[in-house]
Amino acid sequence: MAGLTIFFIILGLLVLFVIGLYNSLIRARIQVDNAWAQIDTQLKRRHDLIPNLINAVKGYMKYEQETLSKIVEARNKAISAKGVGDISRAEGELSGLLTNLFALFENYPELKASQNVLNLQEQLTTTENQIAFARQHYNDSVMQYNTKIQQFPGNIIASMFSFEKKEFFEIPEAEKSVPQVNLDI
Known about the structure:
By secondary structure, the protein is mostly helical. The chain has one domain (31-170): LemA-like domain (de novo design (two linked rop proteins)). It has helices spanning 2-58, 65-80, 84-104, 109-113, 115-150, 154-160, 173-176.
């Protein structure tokens, strides 16, 4: 009789352990989904700001229509991208083009004086910073989740309940390179 009681106690503890581990994996997965939603919100904000910026600078930048067209094209590609990897690549391309556009502003003094353009540029810069923060939070959440589903005994529960590894939001190669500063006069 005592052996049966011990068996049920151990079985009960094992069931509670599995339930706790399962719930921990669910919490981690929800945290990853929430972190992705934060990135998605900031990307939508950026996508919404770009047409306003293009319209504001279009008249001033008559010789840069190809650059503006590339930005619109990259924005459309970023909006239609699916999956973390594709979105990451498309957004990286868009970020690079926006950086180039901001560099071109130096050639147009009237743009630098336009309050509307300066306001939009500031909003985009703020959004870029928020995207970077959201990306860091997302990648941290993915790291924690992926670690939980790969470590023992979480890997057993994860495989039993089809928890799949999440993809990181990679930093585009263009953003990884260190900018070159030339101080030659």
